[in-house]
Design brief:
Belongs to the autoinducer-2 exporter (AI-2E) (TC 2.A.86) family. This is AI-2E family transporter. Keywords: Cell membrane, Membrane, Transmembrane, Transmembrane helix, Transport. With 426 residues, the chain is mainly α. The protein has a domain of 148 residues. Helix 3 crosses helix 4 and helix 4 packs across helix 9.
């Protein structure tokens, strides 16, 4: 009996162990199932979240198309519309200047003359003369000198015009004989045809000029008006230039007033240095080239020297054109040898001017690259003719000075500090 009870006891123990083992297996499987379910749920939730995020981004892109544009394209577009605004502003400005071109050119000429005469007014004022008397004395002397120069040129041309015409006719006949005997096989009939065409062209031009006399009178009236406006503007700027500058500064916004106040004196010093240096260089060119062609026996040496002086105010282009005029007059009046000698004189003087006079006299104040000079003269000539060609280079020189000053002032560091400390310089 005891053996049966022991067997049932062992069976009961094994059954309990089996139940415990089954419970542990079930618990482990339930934990595995729970982990798998949690992972699947998390994956599904992440996919749903990503899909929702992508949908929101697509919706935002649909609502804001600029967000879908690449960064480089956006930068190019921003720069492009700003460039178009600047181009439109410049076009409108050019149209306005073209509409009042006479006033603008007269004012610019007055600025150039004022830059030339203002040091004399300041010197006389420091020596005890009143501002008005110094201005009147300087202006009268300057205008008298200009009038005497104009009268002298007209007198020399009228005195030598007949002799020049005879010399030109002789030169043309000599050129005709040389062409007939040259290896180019030019016939007399061809030369006569060319002469007839030239004569017809001159006759047509003369008739057109005669028929447009009213237009010529209008041009003369405009020239006289421009001269009077330039004279009055020069007088007022010589007498009251400082107050005019202060009034101009009050029109500038307060945020930019300090920079403009610092750039103004520097621009004026650059303009004064340019006008004074160009005047000295032009005078030296005219004197030396005029003396050279005078000793070569070229007629109208003095009027040609005056033309060289006036043309030298158009850098590079004016010197070449006036030098070519001297060579052509020497060719048609004195022959090939004299023309070559005149060309040698012109080239020598211009080389001395370009390599010695301009760097020494103008210095660093108006340092502009020759390409910039040529482009400025060409642009000014296209926009406003000879007057535009004259004022183009000083305008570029002043702009270069102002931009350089403003750029240095905007840069942080000791350079900007020194610029700010020097803003009050006259």
């Amino acid at each position: 009996m005891s053996g049966v009870q022991g067997w049932f006891g062992r069976l009961k123990g094994r059954t309990a162990a089996l139940r415990e083992h089954g419970a542990r297996v079930r618990a482990r499987r339930e934990a595995e199932y729970a982990a798998e379910y949690a992972a699947e749920y998390a994956a599904e939730h992440a996919a749903e979240h990503a899909g929702a995020q992508h949908a929101r981004e697509a919706t935002d892109a649909a609502r804001n198309p600029a967000g879908a544009v690449p960064w480089g394209v956006r930068v190019a577009a921003e720069a492009g519309w700003r460039f178009l605004v600047l181009a439109a502003t410049l076009w409108v400005l050019m149209r306005v200047i073209g509409a009042v071109r006479l006033v603008v050119l007269a004012f610019v000429v007055a600025l150039l003359v004022t830059a030339l005469l203002q040091p004399t007014v300041a010197r006389l004022h420091r020596r005890g003369l009143s501002r008005g008397l110094a201005t009147a004395l300087t202006a009268i002397c300057g205008f008298v000198v200009l009038g005497l120069v104009g009268w002298f040129v007209v007198w020399q041309v009228s005195e030598n015009l007949g002799d020049l015409t005879d010399r030109v006719q002789e030169g043309i006949e000599e050129l005709k004989r040389w062409l007939l005997n040259s290896p180019f096989h030019v016939t007399e009939q061809q030369i006569n045809d060319i002469a007839k065409k030239l004569s017809d062209s001159v006759g047509t031009s003369t008739s057109e000029i005669t028929s447009s006399g009213l237009k010529g009178v209008t041009v003369v009236v405009e020239i006289i008006t421009g001269l009077l406006l330039a004279m009055f503007s020069t007088l007022f700027m010589l007498y009251d230039g400082r107050h005019i500058w202060q009034w101009t500064l009050r029109l500038v916004p307060a945020a930019a007033r300090r920079g403009v106040a610092g750039a103004g004196p520097r621009a004026w010093r650059t303009l004064t240095a340019y006008v004074r240096g160009t005047l000295i260089v032009a005078l030296i060119d005219a004197v030396f080239i005029g003396v050279g062609i005078y000793f070569l026996g070229v007629p109208l040496a003095v009027p040609i020297a005056v033309v060289i002086f006036l043309s030298s105010f158009i850098p590079l282009v004016g010197a070449v054109a006036s030098g070519a005029l001297a060579v052509v007059v020497a060719l048609v009046t004195q022959g090939v040898f004299t023309a070559l000698m005149a060309l040698l004189v012109v080239l020598l003087v211009q080389q001395i001017e370009g390599h010695i006079l301009q760097p020494f006299i103008l210095g660093r104040a108006v340092r502009i690259h020759p390409l910039g000079v040529v482009l400025a003269v060409a642009t000014g000539g296209i926009i406003a003719g000879i007057g535009g060609a004259v004022v183009a280079v000083p305008l570029v020189a002043v702009t270069n000075t102002v931009v350089g000053y403003l750029r240095t002032r905007a840069e942080p560091g000791p350079a900007a500090s020194s610029v700010d400390a020097d803003e009050g310089a006259p």
